[in-house]
Amino acid sequence: MCPPRHFAVEYAINPWMDPSKPVDAGRAMAQWAELRDTYRRLGHTVEEIAPQPGLPDMVFAANSGTVIDGRVLGARFRAAERAAEAEHFRRWFVEHGYRDVTMPSRINEAEGDFAWTGRLLLAGTGFRTDPAAHAEAQEVLGVPVLSLRLVEPRYYHLDTALFVLSEATESAPAQIAYYPEAFSAGSRRVLARLFADAVPADAADAECFGLNGVSDGRNVVLPLEATALASRLADRGYEPVLVDISELRKAGGGPKCCTLEIRK
After folding, report:
1. Residue of 238, 243, 257 whose CA lies nearest to 157
2. What count of other Cβ atoms lies within 10 Å of the Cβ of residue 157?
3. Of 9, 28, 80, 126, which has the fewest Cβ atoms less than 10 A away?
4. Which runs of consecutive H residues, i.e. helices, occur in the chain?
């Protein structure tokens, strides 16, 4: 995670960003700290990277890389405003002992568009990540990759429209939650075929960034407003944990956007 010390909305690179609307940096920091502390209370280890001046979106660490079995595929951003973030995160991985670090040749916004199910890497495209980056991810990470096409501009990254609730094990398949209307017709059919037991989300869930959740297989961290989705998850046996990310949402981010999951 990366503290939002320099958080601001100074440009618009997604439909949620409006530089004319005021941003409370102090409130953003408090919300981020509560999210970090929530993970710690749930028993998770949180590593932090130092934020850099001039990179207000660096708080959205999910876009910094994809880590599976200790292999790291870095990021290459589509927007020039975020391009410099990639090198800061690459250095962090190297300085923290990761030796198998590959920087992509194709545009790849990391866990923004990549979701690991335990067996498959679901890979989004349509607005940010280059479709050719999916083949590159498969080659670098050595895992099968399934392409999914996003068609709704407000849900420009896979992690705004889908998240993994529980990874696949030898005895159980992976389970996901997703918002079908964010995907092309073909991608919806693929998801329905692969994840027949998926938790459905509606427009209200998506609009509050409810699909930008983080699950450890039991506890599911969601935006405070995602009460309907939380109820459906509780009915499935999960433990919803609601957090306020309203200030960070002004830049198009939620719990998952702020969180890179490191799978060693």
Report:
1. 257
2. 29
3. 80
4. 25-41, 85-95, 132-141, 185-194, 203-207, 227-235
The tens-digit pLDDT sequence of the chain (264 residues) is 999 999 999 999 999 999 999 999 999 999 999 999 999 999 999 999 999 999 999 999 999 999 999 999 999 999 999 999 999 999 999 999 999 999 999 999 999 999 999 999 999 999 999 999 999 999 999 999 999 999 999 999 999 999 999 999 999 999 999 999 999 999 999 999 999 999 999 999 999 999 999 999 999 999 999 999 999 999 999 999 999 999 999 999 999 999 999 998
Q: Which of 219, 245, 233, 223 is nearest to 40 (CA)?
A: 219
Residue reference for tokens 């896979």: 158
In this structure, are residues 73 and 143 in contact, taking their beta carbons and an 8 Å threshold? no
**CA-to-CA distance for 163 and 178, rounded, in angstroms?**
7
- The answer to whether the Cα torsion of 224, 240, 254, 98 is positive or negative is positive
What tokens does 228 get?
């309907």
In this structure, the strands spanning 175-178 and 162-166 are: antiparallel
pTM here is 0.97
Residues with a catalytic annotation lie at 157, 257
Which residues lie across from 108 on neighbouring strands?
76
Query: What are the structural domains, with CATH classification, of the chain?
Result: 25-251 (3.75.10.10)
144 and 114 Cβ atoms separated by less than 8 Å: no
Summarize the chain as % helix, strand, coil (round to 5).
30, 20, 50
Q: Cα(226)–Cα(206) distance, rounded to whole angstroms? A: 8
Burial class (CB in 10 A: 0-12, 13-18, 19+), 43: exposed
- Alpha-carbon distance of 73 to 34, in angstroms, equals 28
